[in-house]
């Protein structure tokens, strides 16, 4: 059975009084897409336990199936218990929380290197690529250097009102690392595929990224 590792954030606060976490639809839509294919999905986080949901990602119009996905975020597996050999792909959903803990997880960087160099799928959407910025290949080069990468853009970030609170701007960081950043207009679905690296721009891109992962795994 095909097995997917989804890595989510444990970070719950941008600053006192300003909550953050995972962007729920990015997790839920991908999780559902993988389950529909009959894949086994394991949800993990740097610390294990509960992954916080960004309250701004839920409102009165949020579909019930999206809301119900929160049950998969209550007791995540610690990354330290994860072995790459068990999985076919890794997927990093976004939410501003990922900007704080995923780049600092040495275990995640180790896993990403192993996934990528084993020619397994490495995928991320929106702020999920924050998890890629500290990842290196075994030769020490940034994993994303020279590769086509997509993520939440600086233009999109400027519309969130959070720029001054963030540890870095994701698009800027990706460009600094030598990746070829390919952006689409704000809030439109866009995916970049470079070999076994699959990245998407924003919440609107989640299903397209999941579909690209599924297509890659079906070859």
UniProtKB/TrEMBL annotation:
Gene Ontology cellular component terms for the protein in this record: cytoplasm
Ranges for domain DJ-1/PfpI: 25-215
InterPro entries: Class_I_gatase-like, DJ-1/PfpI, Prot/Nucl_acid_deglycase
Gene Ontology MF terms: glyoxalase III activity; peptidase activity
GO BP, one annotated term: methylglyoxal catabolic process to D-lactate via S-lactoyl-glutathione
Keywords: Hydrolase, Lyase, Protease, Stress response
Assigned protein family: Belongs to the peptidase C56 family. HSP31-like subfamily.
UniProt-recorded name of the protein: Putative intracellular protease/amidase
Gene source species: Paenibacillus rhizosphaerae
Lineage of the organism: Bacteria, Bacillati, Bacillota, Bacilli, Bacillales
């Amino acid at each position: 059975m095909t097995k997917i590792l989804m890595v989510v954030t444990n970070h719950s606060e941008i600053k006192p009084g300003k909550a953050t976490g995972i962007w729920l639809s990015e997790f839920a839509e991908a999780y559902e897409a993988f389950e529909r294919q009959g894949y086994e999905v394991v949800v993990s986080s740097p610390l294990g336990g509960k992954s916080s949901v960004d309250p701004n990602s839920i409102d009165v119009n949020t579909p019930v199936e999206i809301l119900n996905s929160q049950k998969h975020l209550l007791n995540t597996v610690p990354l330290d218990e994860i072995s790459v050999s068990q999985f076919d792909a890794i997927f990093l959903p976004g939410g501003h929380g990922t900007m704080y803990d995923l780049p600092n997880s040495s275990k995640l960087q180790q896993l990403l290197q192993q996934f990528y160099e084993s020619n397994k799928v490495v995928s991320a959407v929106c702020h999920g690529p924050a998890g890629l910025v500290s990842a290196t290949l075994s030769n020490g080069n940034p994993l994303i250097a020279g590769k086509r990468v997509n993520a939440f853009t600086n233009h999109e970030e400027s519309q969130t009102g959070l720029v001054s609170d963030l540890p870095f701007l994701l698009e800027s960081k990706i460009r600094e690392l030598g990746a070829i950043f390919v952006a689409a207009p704000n809030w439109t679905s866009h995916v970049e595929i470079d070999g076994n690296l699959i990245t998407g721009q924003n919440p609107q891109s989640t299903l397209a990224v999941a579909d690209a992962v599924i297509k890659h795994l079906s070859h």
